[in-house]
Amino acid sequence: MAARLAQLRTKAAQAAEFASKHGGAYYKEAMEKNKQYVVQPPSVEKCQELSKQLFYTRLASLPGRYEALWKEVDGVKQLWKNRKELKVEDLGIATLFGVELYAWFCVGEIAGRGFTLTGYKV
């Protein structure tokens, strides 16, 4: 265990050294590449204004999202009504989608338990 801790410390020191050497250049490059998104002059008031604009813009998009949700639900209802006419390909895609959802649920549960399979940390 002590050897693993020492190895982790060494890796962390190497990562910190790399970041200190190359972090400034990366920052300058990123800022130069994305300067069209920077509001001048940068101030706390402007940040608060932009934050409010983002919040209320997203809030305003909810009715459109709500309508899109119900269109999808109606589409699923129509598919369910005409399920006798479905092709094997469509059923296969739906099955794969369901398996993927189930797998994400299982991965989420495992992550929530701290990446242990039984729930007990060893």
TrEMBL record:
<comment type="similarity">
    <text>Belongs to the ATPase g subunit family.</text>
</comment>
<keyword id="KW-0813">Transport</keyword>
<dbReference type="GO" id="GO:0015986">
    <property type="term" value="P:proton motive force-driven ATP synthesis"/>
</dbReference>
<dbReference type="GO" id="GO:0015078">
    <property type="term" value="F:proton transmembrane transporter activity"/>
</dbReference>
<dbReference type="GO" id="GO:0045259">
    <property type="term" value="C:proton-transporting ATP synthase complex"/>
</dbReference>
<keyword id="KW-0375">Hydrogen ion transport</keyword>
<keyword id="KW-0496">Mitochondrion</keyword>
<dbReference type="Pfam" id="PF04718">
    <property type="entry name" value="ATP-synt_G"/>
</dbReference>
<keyword id="KW-0406">Ion transport</keyword>
<keyword id="KW-0472">Membrane</keyword>
<protein>
    <submittedName>
        <fullName>Uncharacterized protein</fullName>
    </submittedName>
</protein>
<dbReference type="InterPro" id="IPR006808">
    <property type="entry name" value="ATP_synth_F0_gsu_mt"/>
</dbReference>
<keyword id="KW-0066">ATP synthesis</keyword>
<keyword id="KW-0138">CF(0)</keyword>
<dbReference type="GO" id="GO:0031966">
    <property type="term" value="C:mitochondrial membrane"/>
</dbReference>
